[in-house]
Structure formats: structure tokens, C-alpha cells
Amino acid sequence: MTARSALRRYMLVSFLTWLPPGLMMASMVLLMTGRGLGLAEIGLVVTVFSVVTVTLELPTGGLADVIGRRMVLAASAAFTVAGLALMSVSTTFWMFMLSGVFKGVARALSSGPATSWYVDTLHGIEGRDADLRPGLARGGAMESVALCLGVLAGGALPLLAPPSLIFPLAAPPLAGAMAALVLLIVVVFALPEPGHGRRSLAGVLREVPATVIGGVRLSLGGAVLRRLMIASAASGLVLMSIELLTPGRLAELAGTAEEGSLVYAVVAALGFAGSALGSSLAPRAARLAGGSARGAIAGTVLTALSIGALAATAGLDGPPGVVSAGLAYVCLFVGGAVTAVLCLEITHNAVTAAERTTVTSTSSLSLQSGGIVANLTLGSLAAQAGLAAAWSAAAVVMLASALLFVRMPAPTGSSPAQALPARSGSG
Fold first, then answer.
1. DSSP letter, residue 409
2. Which of these CATH numbers, 1.20.1250.20, 3.90.550.10, 1.10.540.10, 3.90.1010.10, describes 210-408?
3. What pLDDT band is residue 427 in, cutting at 50, 70 and 90?
């Protein structure tokens, strides 16, 4: 396999992994409402999804490092097919709950293995000094393109589905299940990787906890990865502040919930397009800034300024409010994507294949932890002091996180021992 072939396969898998979530995004809540669920029940379904994802994040990362990336990605695709197919035919609370469990398992399984497969493959072809930025940037761009196209297609499918054949709002998750089935086929037949040898179930059960513990110790014990985990938590707080507060703000600007939903779908699609652009620009940003850490600072500052712009325009009404919020939203995702790609490059240069997916899962867990903090704090702050105060607080957190990249030790790319200082010396 050549480096170009590996990149094409990685980009395809990245696109297909995020297309199903994009397809179901616009109709998910409306589908559950149409099938008789109340807001409290819908909240429980979403909560179960989040709890399952967080709980399995590290064990599935360790599993991918032990048994291989392809098997875990295939399992993720299979659970996605099951979860979305069940969602499309669910008529009761418990059916939707089981669908949420399946989707949570799939999300946890998909966190990291595709990128780890690409990095391992590229290192095998070009050595440990291979330039990861272009490939990781294109993979990130394909994820954003999938979400952008998926949310637009998912919003249009209910209007195109014949009511006599299917409940219209069930069409998007059904299409997502079909896309996940394509992903399963691609993963099985197009992602070759070195064999991991025959292992007994008992052997795997022993190795996975040890791998997880080693990966967590590495993430917390080294200066580079520890800083990246904190930066990931800050990004999670900011992203949740957007997901939590933007829909209500746009509904208020549009006039009605229905019109606000449409506006939000369009703004979300533009945000994903901005994320694709930011991912593509990440290598150039690193070159212009003089390194990945400095490029990450630039992306973080742009993100912080964009949230500050949301706070500054929170008092605008009508079209000016919609346009200013939309522009800030797009710029925010451009900056966030630049930072995400460069952080991913630094992370993979700081670890070896043995704990690669576990460490990226730890980063994903940090991101979700930041989101939990935002859920517990920013919603109450917005209710008591207004949107401007909540977004200002998020902007301050994001801007402060830029300091994490100042004088960051550069991974040498040969081993964790070289890339990171000793645990006792780093405090």
C-alpha cells in the first residue's frame, strides 16, 4: 500500500463514519416527539447515549490497541447500523432507549481507531518522521463535509419520502443505517493492518485494562499530553456552550421555534463547512505560525474571539442578529478545526502504536468532560445573567487555554520517552 492509497481510504472511512450522525441530526428529536415521547423522555434517551459513550470511551480505546483498529471499527459500524435501523422503527420509549445504547456503543468504538490506523500505516510506509499534518487535515475535513452534507440531506429527506411507504421523519435514520452498512463493508475489505496474533478471551481481558491504565498514566504524566487534555476539556466546554445556547438564540431571532429550527440547520451546516475549511487550513496555519503549537494558539485565539463576538452581538435583533451570529459561528468552527487537527498531530507524535487509540480516547473523554461542566454551569449562568455573560465566560476559558501551547515541549516522534519528560520531573 502507498501513502496516497492509505490517505484515500482514511478519508473515505472518516466521511462514512460521520455521515450517519449528520443524517439523523436534524430529525432525531422531532422523530421521537412524533412517536409520542415527551421532552423528559427524550432527555433520558440522550443522557443514556452520553453515559454509555463516556463509560466505554477508554475500554474501547484500549481494545483497539490490543486487538486491532479494523475489528473495532467494524464493530462500531455494526452497532451504528443496529442503532439507527432500530431508531427508524421505534415506537416506544424503551425502543428509543435501546437505540441510544447501541449508538453510544458505536460512538465509543469509533473514537480514535481510524486515525490510529492511518498514522500506523503511514509510519510503516514512511517511518516515524512522516508528516502527519496533511493527512490528518484531510481526514478532519472529510468528517466536517460528511456532517455538513448529512444535516442538509437529513433535513430534506422527510420532505421527499413518500408518506405511504414510511413515516417521513424515519427516513433520515434509515438512510444513516444504510450509510453505516457501506462503512462496515469498506472497513472489512479496505483497511488491511498487520495481524495482532491469536488471543484468548482471557488474554484480551487482561491486556485491555493494562493498556488503558498505561495510556491514562501517559496522558496525565507527561507535560505535552497533560496540556493537550486540558485544552481538549476547554474545547468541550466551548462546543457545548454553542450547542446549548445557540438554538434558543436563533429561535428568538427568527420569531418561532419552527423557523428557528430551519435557521439553526442552515447555520449548523455552515459551521460544519467552516470546520472543513479550518481542517484544510491547519497545515498552512502551522507553517505560517512557525510550528504546530503556534498554529494551535492562532486557532484557539480565533475561536475565543468568535465566542466573544457572539457575546457582543447577543443584544442584536432581527436579520443583523442572525447574520452576526452566523458569521461568528462559522469563524468559531474554522478556528476550532485548526486547533483540533494540530493537537491531533502533536498527540500522535507523542505516543507509540501500543497506546495510540487509548490516548486519543482519553482526549475525547476530556472533551466530553468539558461539555459536562458547560451543561452544569453555563445554562444556569445564561438564565441568571444572560447569553452575553455565558458566552463571555466561555471566551475567557478558551483564550486562557491558548497559554497551554506556549513553550510546549515538542515531541521528537521516536518514542514516548523522548517525546515526554519523566513523570516525576513534570509534577
1. P
2. 1.20.1250.20
3. very low
Structure confidence at residue 46 (pLDDT): 77
Give the separation between CA 325 and CA 267, rounded to whole angstroms.
9
State the pLDDT confidence band at 366, using cuts at 50, 70 and 90.
Answer: confident
Q: Fold for 1-190, please state it.
A: Growth Hormone; Chain: A; (1.20.1250)
Asked if domains 1-190 and 210-408 share a fold, the reply is yes
| Cell triple for 2 | 502507498
C-alpha closest to that of 192 among 125, 111, 108 = 125
Q: Where are the chain's structural domains?
A: 1-190, 210-408
- Cβ 53 vs Cβ 79: under 8 Å: no
Range 139-155 average pLDDT: 87
Cα distances from 40 to residues 44, 80, 380, in angstroms, run: 6, 24, 18
Instruction: Give the pLDDT score at 214.
Output: 61
Q: Angle, nearest 10°, between helix axes 356-385 and 39-67?
A: 160
How many residues can be counted in the chain? Answer: 427
Q: Quick one: cell of 149?
A: 452534507
Residue 58, CB-side half-sphere exposure with 13 Å CA sphere: 17
Indicate the pLDDT class of residue 382, thresholds 50, 70 and 90: confident
